[in-house]
Specification:
The structure is a homotetramer of 143-residue chains. The longest helix of chain A has 17 residues. Chain A has a single domain, classed as Roll (Thiol Ester Dehydrase, Chain A). Chain A has 143 residues and is α+β, with helices and mostly antiparallel strands. Helix content of chain A is 26%, strand content 35%. The first copy, chain A, has a five-stranded antiparallel sheet with strand order 1-4-5-6-3, with helices on both faces. In chain A, strands 2-7 form a two-stranded antiparallel sheet. The relative contact order of chain A is 0.21. The first copy, chain A, has four helices and seven strands. At the A-B interface, α1 and β3 of A face α1 and β3 of B. β3 of chain C pairs antiparallel with β3 of chain D, so a sheet runs across the interface.
Chain lengths: 143, 143, 143, 143
């Protein structure tokens, strides 16, 4: 399963001295960018040259464990559902194997010029299909 | 129903020139702070003097309409569910009446020193009970 | 002198429980946006319809007093220097009259399409000239 | 000279589709954290165990070249001035060798409990002294 990592920063914490939860949502988007970058499709090129955008239309997160600055957060990425014009990505953020947060983010596929929904084209459909693991989010929650 | 508003900023947009979705999650937290502040319980005092924290443990968002910088975003806040040691807040962000995003955020009630879950104490329980509207999130989605 | 205000948020603080200093730089940009908005030139229109952008090319800040969440920060804005293709804005952030931070931000005037420097056009030149107070930054530092 | 790097993200850009300048200030703080981490003093430990904080009291930045998402930004870090209770760090952010921004950030050394200024203690004084390059900022500006 695809995995990336990032370093949690001093400024990512809030008054309660844990990572501010909207920043954790940002971390999931960083992992989404890395997923494209590391599979031969630099995310900037996907948007600006290929002309396909992936706005979030739905978001679901379970926060299970505080994330603190100085920690290296690892994030696993898979495709939970592959639709015609949208896909749901699954994410598991963990700290040395202990799950800190689980997320599902549904993204629409749009043309960057029209800003309207389009069918997910190749080569993205194949890339997503290779990482398809329906039910994986549920199985993680059951543990 | 309680409502607050905020101004969407130049720096809230991302490369796609719409508000970056983790920033929209931040907007909901701003509305949560305002909800306390405007009901006689300054949020900072709730945390630092009363000693109760409200970390997000679950988050669900439907993004329905792009939010752009320069717009005034209005956010309605209610309590969707009131449990013993947690509550689920409902949020509707709208632009001049048109729904831009709906969210439910489940927060645990913790003691700021122990960082452990505690029963939601007065006067917060009464405040939340006054704003309880179970099923309101669902009714908005059905429209 | 033009003044605007903003509310410091829970998520604006960092691990040291004071506003993270890059967020304070963001606050100055919010005041810059408000300066345009409140003088009949909505900043979004300035950029997207009039086609003029104002990227920061220089930044200087003195942080004098911690800024904490829950506080209402007031920010005064003036023009410290008005050049041909650039201008330097002065900012004083204060908490109930006590200076928390002083800043000067030099912005270039660019055409949004060419991204190249252009002469500051009307009506912006007149607007800036009306708020010109050369030496005001220095006078504040001397106090 | 110490150098670290970071990846510029989709959400770091603003409406003008370049990295929002307060985010660039954040990047410099990330480099400051890395400087401690990579010299055997994890920044979190410096603050929470050793009990020394380093709030910014002065900030000076020259922005020379737009920074865009998808780019790897390299940041060089040195000590421009080493005082008794404060130090000025110099930063050069570059994209494949081309300078994008230069900064000087003056930090005070404080005790995290008193929040008052203290003399920079060992081992930090020695670490800073090893990286002392007075005048380096000026020499870069002259080029």
């Amino acid at each position: 399963m695809y995995e990336t990592s990032l370093k949690v920063r001093f400024g990512d914490e809030d008054h309660a001295r844990i990572a501010y939860f909207p920043r954790i949502v940002h971390f999931f988007h960083c992992a989404f960018e890395d997923f494209f970058d590391d599979h031969g499709h630099p995310y900037r090129k996907v948007l600006d040259e290929d002309g396909y955008g992936w706005p979030a239309v739905g978001l679901n997160v379970d926060f299970m464990r505080p994330i603190r600055f100085g920690e290296i957060l690892k994030i696993q990425v898979w495709v939970e559902r592959l639709g015609s014009k949208s896909a749901t990505f699954g994410y598991r953020a963990h700290l040395a194997g202990k799950t800190a947060a689980l997320a599902q983010v549904t993204v629409a596929c749009i043309g960057m010029e029209s800003f309207g929904a389009v069918e997910i084209p190749e080569p993205y459909r194949s890339l997503f299909a290779e990482h398809l693991q329906p039910g994986h989010s549920e199985s993680l929650k059951e543990r």
